[in-house]
Specification:
Length: about 250
């Protein structure tokens, strides 16, 4: 009974503090629906450790109202159209799968001093792929791939997929095979195995799937959780290929 009254008292205190400090509306919901945990989170973030609360608060706000982050970033760009502000806005659009808006903002940056920025070029590769601008992906990815310092995994991957979409299968296979590195690149290697099967290279597909299954046995528990969905698809593919799975 004492715990109940203490919880009520803590809620009232948090509500009062939130009202006095004009806290965001979502805090009231957190305090109300999560009486103990919500209050402790509020006390820690808004009272004890206010410095970090802004960052976490922004994440919660984004989850509740996804459009707010875009709106805030647009306002930042309007106030100061810097490379970092414009890039953040483009990244936010890409994250929300608003590819046209993302591309428009990335391309604005091509007129500036940072037009050769590696990260910008990589994001353009990804965006153009999702917009099915496969020729543009190839044009952008080739110089990135040629520079050994910029052999980004995602660049090679989307380059290979773009070649595949254009029915340039030999080029597609060459790039996708470049990602076949033991104990890494699991989702990409799954795509490669599927591609090989589509190309009727059954033995190669079986070999790759067998390697993936074998590697799975030696993965750490955290990695098994991270790649759970990938290996469920690997197991399904192994069943299709009639491989034994231990």
């Amino acid at each position: 009974m004492l715990f109940y009254y203490l919880t009520i008292a803590l809620q009232i205190y948090c509500f009062y503090h939130a009202y006095q400090n004009r806290s965001e509306l979502y805090w009231y919901a957190i305090i109300f629906f999560l009486p103990v945990i919500g209050c402790l989170i509020y006390v820690f973030l808004k009272i004890i450790n206010k410095k970090d609360s802004n960052v976490i608060g922004e994440e919660i706000t984004t989850a509740i109202n996804p459009g707010k982050r875009i709106k805030d970033l647009i306002e930042k760009v309007e106030f100061a159209d810097t490379f970092s502000n414009r890039l953040a806005l483009a990244d936010a659009y890409l994250q929300r799968k608003e590819y046209e808006n993302a591309l428009e903002n990335y391309e604005v940056l091509l007129d500036g001093a940072h037009k050769n920025d590696t990260y910008l070029q990589e994001q353009l590769v990804i965006t153009n792929y999702h917009l099915k601008n496969y020729e543009s992906v190839i044009e952008l990815a080739k110089p990135l791939k040629a520079n050994s310092e910029n052999r980004a995994l995602k660049v090679i991957f989307y380059l290979g997929l773009s070649y595949k979409a254009l029915d340039k299968f030999n080029n597609a296979e060459k790039n996708l095979r470049a990602l076949d590195i033991r104990y890494s690149n699991y989702p990409e290697r799954l795509v490669l195995a599927q591609f090989l099967l589509e190309r009727e290279k059954v033995d190669d597909a079986k070999e790759l799937v067998s390697e993936l299954l074998s590697e799975h046995n030696y993965m750490s528990k955290p990695n098994k959780r991270i790649y759970r969905d990938t290996f469920m698809k690997v197991k399904k593919l192994s069943d299709t290929l009639q491989l034994e799975y231990k």
